[in-house]
Specification:
This protein is an alpha/beta fold and about 290 residues long. It is built from nine helices and eleven strands. Helix content is about 30%, strand content about 20%. The model has no long low-confidence stretch (mean pLDDT about 85).
Length: about 290
């Protein structure tokens, strides 16, 4: 393994890194910004996602009516009326469906052709296409966009700063780019290891790393928020640890009630101790 593979993808060779234990494989931790990154930052490729149970089951049985998440509301609060909204890594189009319900025009791109088919056929979204990020961003009609979003995307990609630069190139001069990432300093650390480990997540982020990535990519000073720790964050990972990351339709059985009780107790104890930290970071910025 070359020394280059140990270089922080945000700070570059001027920073150092140290080995840190990960959930299933070791990470490197940047000594400057705190980013946890996978040595070499190699993306697993389309075959990994096509066969991964995390992304299975996108059909009419599993795609529900879109419900706004905390991050979705943060994004839509920053969209002027009638905005052109471009969601990178749009998946089956849940966020774009919400955006269109609120009077915006939705566009998107995702590497998973199955997800794009679901977005078109099951959600009626026609401004979406299958493609790679950042290579195929310019193929999406409608640019420049008033709002560009990437929910839980850049942690999967080998060059996050290059991706942020590509997003900057398709946002309007007065528009905003919003990105969410997994928080490296979340408490309690209950992420399912199969979801959190490479090659699925190549990076885990600190606020300092996220700020540095946006500034290096040519943005103005970003606004960075930590998602408040919520009951559903903890309950979901309890379910994933037992069933895997593509669980069956929830039931109201004894085990499910016990999982919910455990999650509520842990949430209360974490908040009471003052150690609770959100599982997600959000950054919003305008192009420089």
């Amino acid at each position: 393994m070359s020394d280059r593979s140990l270089v922080c993808p945000v700070c570059g060779p001027e920073s150092g890194s140290a080995s840190e234990r990960g959930p299933l494989a070791p990470y490197r931790r940047c000594t400057r910004c705190g980013l946890r990154f996978t040595p070499g930052m190699r993306e697993p490729g389309a075959a990994f996602y096509a066969s991964s149970p995390i992304y299975a089951g996108r059909d009419e049985r599993t795609i529900a009516r879109p419900e706004p998440s905390w991050a979705h509301e943060v994004a839509l609060d920053r969209a002027p009326p009638g905005s052109r909204v471009f969601d990178v890594g749009c998946g089956d189009g849940a966020f774009l469906a919400l955006a269109q319900q609120r009077g915006h025009r939705g566009f998107g791109v995702d590497h998973d052709a199955r997800a794009i088919d679901a977005a078109r056929s099951l959600r009626g979204l026609h401004g979406v296409l299958a493609g790679r990020v950042p290579e195929d961003l310019a193929r999406v009609a409608g640019a420049p966009f008033e709002l560009v979003t990437a929910f839980d995307v850049i942690e999967h990609l080998g060059d996050p700063v290059a991706v942020l630069r590509a997003l900057r190139d398709v946002v309007a001069a007065a528009g905003r780019v919003l990105v969410t990432v997994p928080h490296a300093e979340r408490r309690p650390a209950w992420f399912d290891p199969r979801v959190d480990a490479p090659p699925h997540h190549l990076t885990l982020w600190t606020a300092a790393a996220l700020r540095a990535a946006f500034l290096r990519a040519g943005y103005a000073e970003p606004e960075i928020m930590e998602k408040p720790l919520a009951f559903e964050d903890l309950r979901l990972h309890l379910v994933w640890r037992r069933h895997g990351p593509n669980p069956p339709v929830p039931r109201a059985g004894l085990r499910e009630r016990f999982d919910s009780l455990r999650a509520r107790v842990l949430l209360v104890l974490s908040r009471a101790s003052g150690r609770a930290r959100g599982q997600m970071l959000v950054a919003v910025a305008r192009p420089q």
